[in-house]
Backbone:
């Protein structure tokens, strides 16, 4: 059996995944791609912005220079224009300036270019061409315009330094992109490591629990992040499962212990009757006694099924608005006679009305269990306090006796199935009465409180009052 269980767990365990099928790797790759693309787009935008800014500055300088030279031509004609160009060529204000003036017949009148650049024929258009400036090869941004006298004026700027700057920016962009890729890969590795470490802790814990070690818990780092919240949630779930399993184990042990005696007794009586009964009457008496024992077992199982049905909420369909006062008064009338037979005084104080939303039969059963327990453990000559009142928006039903009570250490476990305190072990019962009362109270969104009555036990059922209008 152990071997088959181990084989089943092994079959259920997923096969080892390849690197690229790992969820951690996929998350890391997504992070790296998003980080890399974002960084690349940012660097590319900065690169183009810097180049465009330089381009606009050069164009603005050429345009302003053109306007000034045209004004010289308009004011003084060709001699004034030539003087202005000569001043620019001789000065140091525009060391990268390019000027060329061509006459009507195509001859070069003056300038610092060896010849008119090929392909330049359209006015006010921008050209970026390779030229020879005073015998030195250069790259220039140029613009031309025909003058009123038929000559042509060319103005430009040497942009070799801008080209070098663009190359420097491109190299920097490439290096930055490489660094971003490296940082992205490093971040991806760190994320994958964190992801795997967290998931591994959960996997190791759940694997140990699947192998039967229910004491294992997911470690909490104490950082307080989402992984810690997940670990705390899982640990709370495991604690609840452990408590439920412990409860099932205790119930199973209690069932085995409490039912073994009546089953054994019934079997012994039937065997004894089969061997020693001398008449049909003796055989029938033995059968009747065994039937009583078996009826007690059936009653225990019926109580268990009823508690399970209540805890599952299956009885909510029968809920209705009802007044508990008449129900409690009927129980007072019924149990008053029983209490008198046992020389016990039943002190009753029930207010009316006591409107609640719930199941009449279940509420009646819960109060009956409390009254039964009070009568069972109250000594002759004592009294039982049975009261019900509306206080602070809740209906409080109190049953207080003067019996041995329940020790403070046992009150927390008193509503567990089959739990019986030391003082109750010598008294007949199954240990399911308070479990049923607690289940009924919880089904009605209420509570059951067990308190010390000094001496005795004071049981209080608190239920939300139904204050809805008719």
Residues:
């Amino acid at each position: 059996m152990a071997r088959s269980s181990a084989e089943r767990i092994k079959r259920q365990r997923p096969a080892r995944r390849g690197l690229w099928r790992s969820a951690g790797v996929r998350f890391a790759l997504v992070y790296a791609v998003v980080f890399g693309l974002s960084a690349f787009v940012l660097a590319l935008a900065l690169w183009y912005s810097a180049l465009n800014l330089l381009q606009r500055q050069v164009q603005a300088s050429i345009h302003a220079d053109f306007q000034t030279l045209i004004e010289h031509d308009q004011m003084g004609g060709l001699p004034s224009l030539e003087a202005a160009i000569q001043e620019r060529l001789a000065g140091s204000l525009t060391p990268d300036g390019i000027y060329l003036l061509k006459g009507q017949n195509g001859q070069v009148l003056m300038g610092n270019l060896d010849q008119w650049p090929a392909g330049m024929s359209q006015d006010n258009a921008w050209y970026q061409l390779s030229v020879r400036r005073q015998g030195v090869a250069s790259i220039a941004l140029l613009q031309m315009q025909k003058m009123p006298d038929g000559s042509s004026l060319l103005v430009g700027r040497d942009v070799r330094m801008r080209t070098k700057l663009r190359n420097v920016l491109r190299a920097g962009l490439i290096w930055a992109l490489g660094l971003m890729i490296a940082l992205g890969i490093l971040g991806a590795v760190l994320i994958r490591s964190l992801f795997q470490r967290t998931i591994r802790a959960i996997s190791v814990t759940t694997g140990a629990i699947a192998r039967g070690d229910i004491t294992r818990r997911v470690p909490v780092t104490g950082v307080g992040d989402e992984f810690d919240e997940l670990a705390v949630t899982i640990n709370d779930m495991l604690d609840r499962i452990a408590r439920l399993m412990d409860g099932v184990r205790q119930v199973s042990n209690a069932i085995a212990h409490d039912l073994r005696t009546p089953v054994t007794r019934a079997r012994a009586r039937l065997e004894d009757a089969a061997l020693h009964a001398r008449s049909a009457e003796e055989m029938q008496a033995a059968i009747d006694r065994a039937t009583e024992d078996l009826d007690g077992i059936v009653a225990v199982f019926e109580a268990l099924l009823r508690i399970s049905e209540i805890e599952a909420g299956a009885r909510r369909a029968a809920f209705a608005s009802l007044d508990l006062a008449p129900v409690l008064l009927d129980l007072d009338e019924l149990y008053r006679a029983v209490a008198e037979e046992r020389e016990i005084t039943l002190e009753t104080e029930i207010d009316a009305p006591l409107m609640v939303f719930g199941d009449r039969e279940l509420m009646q059963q819960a109060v009956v269990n409390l009254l039964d327990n009070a009568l069972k453990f109250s000594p002759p000559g004592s009294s039982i306090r049975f009261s019900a009142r509306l206080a602070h928006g809740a209906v409080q039903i109190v049953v207080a006796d003067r019996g041995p009570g329940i020790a403070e250490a046992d009150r927390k476990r008193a509503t567990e199935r089959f739990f019986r305190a030391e003082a109750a072990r010598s008294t007949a019962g199954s240990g399911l009465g308070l479990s049923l009362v607690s289940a009924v109270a919880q089904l009605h969104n209420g509570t059951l409180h067990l308190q010390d009555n000094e001496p005795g036990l004071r049981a209080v059922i608190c239920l939300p009052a139904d204050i809805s209008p008719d």
Notes: The longest helix spans residues 23-90. The radius of gyration is 49 Å.
